[in-house]
Amino acid sequence: MKELFQKYKSVIKFILLFLGTYLLLSAAYAFYLKLSVSSGYHPDYVTNLVARQCATVLDALGYNPVLEANTVRKGMFLIIQNKYAVNIVEGCNAVSVIILFISFIISFAEGFKKTVLFLLAGAVLIYVVNVLRIVFLVIALGKYPGYQDVLHAVLFPAIIYGMVFILWIVWVKMLDTKSAK
Fold first, then answer.
1. Is the dihedral of CA 67, 69, 73, 75 positive or negative?
2. pTM over 0.85
């Protein structure tokens, strides 16, 4: 048994670090959401911020968006051209995707400064791409409402998860390049 642990030490370390980080950050996020709900802020601050930033980008593009709190569906209606466009809810804010990203990077952490810088840059990039993803989803749904299921459930999740996957590959390649030297 000891030989197996020695043989697969790096795999076990990865799994424990990944799961530990993921569970810890997910628990912290769940606590934040619970506090947000109990404080009466609607929806939570990050989701609200994402909705406002999407509205700002849409406004800059000339769509004249309107934001309305949606207490029933617990989100923010983002309306363009006087038609309902989307309801931005907690799952749209990319925090859970950023938690997944951080968990993976920490599992392969190498050097505090390098890891922290990559985590910050990656989290900001994921956040910005997520805002742009929602903006383009709103525009696409306005022009092609018949494709809502494909756009919302397939294409646009592929963008955000594809971004995370690319960042993971970049991180592993950065580590691989260092070990090859």
1. positive
2. yes
